[in-house]
TrEMBL record, chain A:
This is Protein SCO1/2. Gene3D superfamilies: Glutaredoxin (3.40.30.10). It holds the Pfam family SCO1-SenC. CDD domains: SCO. The lineage of its organism: Bacteria, Pseudomonadati, Pseudomonadota, Alphaproteobacteria, Rhodobacterales. One of its GO terms (molecular function) is metal ion binding. Belongs to the SCO1/2 family. Disulfide bonds join C77-C81. Cu cation binds at C77, C81, H164. Signal peptide: none annotated. Keywords: Copper, Disulfide bond, Metal-binding.
From TrEMBL, chain B:
This is Copper(I)-binding protein. Keywords: Signal. Pfam families: PCuAC. Gene3D superfamilies: PCu(A)C copper chaperone. It comes from Silicimonas algicola. Residues 1-22 form the signal peptide. SUPFAM superfamilies: DR1885-like metal-binding protein.
């Protein structure tokens, strides 16, 4: 009898394991995979019209002109923004001429202070990096389209700082979202993601 | 979070690397201030970050309440935190506690001195004077080295990888 019970338990456990596998695989195909595909084609899409510091307009169509890296920040930012600019320069150096096709956009989340002139100066030291600004309303549309987070935090004396998403969003030559590079991500992983959008 | 250990490792590497570019330690009573440094800033950047290490060798708690420098209109103590992928920054009000017998590190990714209204861009290789005011120990001036711009923990890690 004990033997039979044990065999029954084993069979039940096997059935449960198979069911769990079916649910996971099904979940991947039905939920996760379509959502990823959806993000790839919709991230960065919206009706924002912004001005780039190279004199061009920055719209969703800009993404379709070749591989690009887009990150959001602001000039009153002591750490993450200059570090990210520095990281991008280092990645470009490591990739060599392959990276020439990569367009890098630094979109301000603080257009009230970051005018085109100020932003142009700020990104000036990083060759190939283009600043992007515009009206508060258009910047907010872009923030929504790229699904980044940004929030104003008051400081003493009427001053303020900005909390914001700190990743670099990578788009392939067709303007499809490929990967985010997280703040302080290891160089090997960042370079792998960059090569994917440059080759893809 | 599989990346939880990265900041710890990065901090350890930075501490290990610190003596190579730090000025001499400065002492004030039982406090020792070391590894004072700032990052070079992009041109016309309105703000910069200052970093240092404070060790309280005494048996009385202290508190860093203010800082100032001729190169910035004002200096605030801030805490930077990564909340998932979101960078959040908060001013530290009421000063930064320096508990007895402990070392407090102001470093990228954590506490820093926010140098606001910079009079000029911070240039790599230059130094500047920074006055620190402690609630009990009083005031002291340290010399701050200006390091390279893109100096993140990630770079420290890359060097360790060879």
């Amino acid at each position: 009898m004990a033997d039979m019970n044990m065999r029954r338990d084993v069979i039940l456990a096997l059935i449960a394991a198979v069911l769990a596998l079916v649910v996971m695989v099904g979940g991947w195909f039905l939920v996760i995979a379509p959502r990823e595909a959806e993000v790839a084609t919709t991230l960065g899409r919206g009706d924002y019209t912004l001005q780039a510091t190279d004199g061009t307009a920055f719209t969703e169509e800009t993404l379709e002109d070749g591989p690009s890296a887009v990150f959001f920040g602001f000039t009153h930012c002591p750490e993450v923004c200059p570090t990210t600019l520095g990281d991008i320069m280092t990645w470009k150096e490591e990739l060599g001429p392959d990276a020439d096709a990569l367009r890098v956009y630094f979109v301000t989340v603080d257009p009230e202070r970051d005018t085109s002139d100020i932003l142009g100066d700020y990104v000036g030291w990083a060759p190939g990096v283009v600043g992007v600004t515009g009206s508060r309303e258009e910047i907010d549309k872009a923030i929504q389209s790229f699904r980044v987070f940004s929030s104003r935090v008051p400081l003493e004396g009427g001053d303020y700082t900005m909390d914001h998403s700190a990743y670099v969003l990578l788009f392939n030559r067709d303007g499809q979202f490929s990967d985010p590079i997280r703040y302080q991500e290891e160089a090997d992983s960042a370079l792998r993601k960059l090569r994917a959008v440059l080759e893809g | 979070m599989p990346f939880k250990w990265i900041p710890t490792l990065a901090a350890a590497l930075m501490l290990a690397a610190a003596p190579t570019f730090a000025q001499d330690d400065t002492t004030l009573g039982s406090l020792t201030i070391s590894a004072a440094m700032a990052r070079a800033t992009p041109p016309h950047a309105p703000v910069g970050g200052g970093f240092l290490t404070i060790t309280n060798g005494g048996d009385e708690d202290d508190r860093l309440v203010a800082a100032s420098t001729p190169i910035a209109g004002r200096v605030e103590i801030h805490e930077m935190k990564m909340d998932g992928d979101v960078m959040r920054m908060r001013p530290v009000t009421d000063g930064l506690p320096i508990p007895a017998g402990q070392t407090v590190v102001l470093e990228p990714g954590g506490y820093h001195l926010m140098l606001m209204e910079l009079t000029d861009a911070l240039t790599e290789g230059d130094t500047f004077e920074l006055s620190l005011t402690f609630e009990k120990a009083g005031e002291v001036t340290v010399t701050v080295d200006i390091g390279p711009r893109g100096m993140s923990g990630a770079h420290g890690m890359r060097h360790s990888d060879g």
